Amino acid sequence: MRYDNITRGIFIDRPNRFIAHVEVGGNRETVHVKNTGRCKELLIPGCEVWMNAPGTPGRKTKYDLVAVRKSTGVLFNIDSQAPNKAVKEWLLKQDYDLIHPEYTYGDSRIDFYMERTLPDGETKRYLMEVKGCTLEFDGIGYFPDAPTERGVKHIHELIKAKKEGFEAALAYVIQMDGVTEVRPNTDTHPEFGEAIEEAKKAGVEIIFLPCHVEPDSMEIIK
Length: 222
Fold this sequence. Notes:
The chain is of the alpha+beta class. It has 2 domains: 7-77, CATH 2.40.50.580; 82-220, Trna Endonuclease, Chain: A, domain 1. It has 3 helices and 15 strands. Strand 7 and strand 8 form a beta hairpin. Helix 2 packs parallel to helix 3. The longest helix has 15 residues, at 149-163. The protein starts with 6 loop residues before the first strand and ends with a strand.
């Protein structure tokens, strides 16, 4: 997953979830933040950030803030749309016969539906929900960084799908280098942790997808 163009800046502040002020080339710019999570441990005044300029006509802001270097020196991609793009690229390298993004199942849209034909002719069906992890402490990733009722709902849909014969998985895209494990952030959202435990018992697979992050790209590496 690669951005067409990228610009470096220095983070100033974040008045609300959707915008931030960034110093770019000596000028103060209002930029769109492509992540509604808190990111408080990342977006600290004076930190180094990167933005891309989509060039969409009629936009109120020129730039989207997509990456930030944490005080530890590690680069994080914080674009909430990047995980699904990276997963689609990754899935295309696997041996699925069909990949269908944004699949309607029950009352939800699950990120990916896949099919694979087995040697005996049976068609195996898969559902995968993708979550981007941008919260890290001491080399361990955590999700979510803010309460997510939608995330809990998706897990319950995966449990239901597993009972109906699908192969079901929750995939964490780890949007930073050096982290290979994600744990439920039960301090922030205990119900999410409970749902994860219920999903494991039901046979829903939990997948960790470590990434390599550059200012202008993010790629799943294993």
